[in-house]
Amino acid sequence: MTYSQETYERLRALIQDAALDDARWQEAERLLGEVNRMGGSSLGVGEGRSRADGAILLARICLDGQRREDLERRYYAEYWPEDEGIGRWARLEHGVITPAGDLYTDEEKKTSPAYNEALGGMRAQNGLCLRMDGPDGLNVGWLICDSSERGGWTSDQIRLIQRLRPHVRQMAIMRQALAEAEVTAPSTTELLTSRRYGVIHVDRRGRIMTANDRASEILRQGDGLRDFDGFPGTRLPAENAELSRLLARALPPFGERGSAGSMRVTRSSSATPFALHITPVGDEYPHFRTRRIGAVVLIADPGGPASLDPAQVAVILGLTPAEGRLAVALASGRTLRDVARATGRTEETVRWHLKQIFRKQGISRQVDLVRRVLSLDGFADPPD
């Protein structure tokens, strides 16, 4: 199996583009399958280190270049809660490629529905898996389906996966950050309308072109992130140097492909730093309205104001962090479908988490959960 540097750059470009356009991941999967002689993969972002405290935040299964939402729904509804390999996967070292079969004992390979039905159905029992560290306790998982090479996996195939691994990790992290920000469409107008997160567009020189209201407020306050004569900068010199380095990587000379990156920005008013995610924008994007845009800077404020703190709700009610966020979302008037769409999960997965909340709280109706959550913030009971 051989591939050219041009093919590798095309793969890398598609993966980075997928951070802002989900359809590009299918294109990347299709090309990767052709070049690396493999049938597809499963990509996920989650939190926690076991099934007991874990939650899936983003999931994509692609086979033969096509996203398989039916398999996503079936796996996370039927197999994931009992998958014996999840705990072992969570203990893998960051970035180490591991045979998928090593996650199961010999006995489990005979009896496990997850191994025999889920992995078997995906043709991934002889595949490869990776766990990659993400920010704030997140984990990125990449399960790669079986090789179609006659003798199994070759060193060239594994080498290509290793080269693409950091780009897949960054894309998944950015995709999840956008989902958490309720930014699910790839147009610049919709990116700029996010109310919870700051969004800045910079041109190819790194100069600020546009910023949404939240980003403008952050820049105006100058606490951590600042506007230096039209260019984004930080208060601390070391962090400013890191921001300059990331922007330079995202905005290379003409003809070269930029790279995405993330960093933290310290601020004096809060112990919680801003999280910055910087993603290059290619000229080939037809849905971006101006080719002068060089990169998108997403500013996450984990300490931003909220009438209901999901973390506090989770602690008080004895829920996992993901369950706390779901409870607050439902109490804020959002539906299960809204939560699924905003977080990139399937509706069945969100409903499964809701059932776990019901079980822990000893209730059976969503209205009872809403009453319980709102009571923590002094709200009146909602109408039946």
Topology:
Elements: H1 5-17, H2 23-36, E1 40-47, E2 55-63, E3 66-67, H3 69-79, H4 85-90, E4 98-99, H5 106-111, H6 113-122, E5 128-133, E6 138-144, H7 155-180, H8 188-192, E7 198-203, E8 208-211, H9 213-221, E9 225-228, E10 231-234, H10 237-250, E11 261-267, E12 270-280, E13 293-300, H11 310-317, H12 321-331, H13 336-343, H14 347-361, H15 366-375
Antiparallel strand pairs: 1-2, 1-6, 2-3, 4-5, 5-6, 7-8, 7-13, 9-10, 11-12, 12-13
Helix pairs in contact: 1-2, 1-7, 11-12, 12-14, 12-15, 13-14
Fill in the keyword field for this structure.
384 residues; alpha+beta; Beta-Lactamase; Arc Repressor Mutant, subunit A; 3 domains; six-stranded antiparallel sheet; five-stranded antiparallel sheet; 15 helices; 43% helix; globular; disordered C terminus
- Number of helix segments? 15
What is the fold named in CATH at topology level of the largest domain?
A: Beta-Lactamase
The number of domains is: 3
Q: Specify Rg, calculated over alpha carbons.
A: 22 Å
Give a short overview.
The chain is an alpha+beta fold. The protein has helices at 5-17, 23-36, 69-79, 85-90, 106-111, 113-122, 155-180, 188-192, 213-221, 237-250, 310-317, 321-331, 336-343, 347-361, 366-375, and strands at residues 40-47, 55-63, 66-67, 98-99, 128-133, 138-144, 198-203, 208-211, 225-228, 231-234, 261-267, 270-280, 293-300.
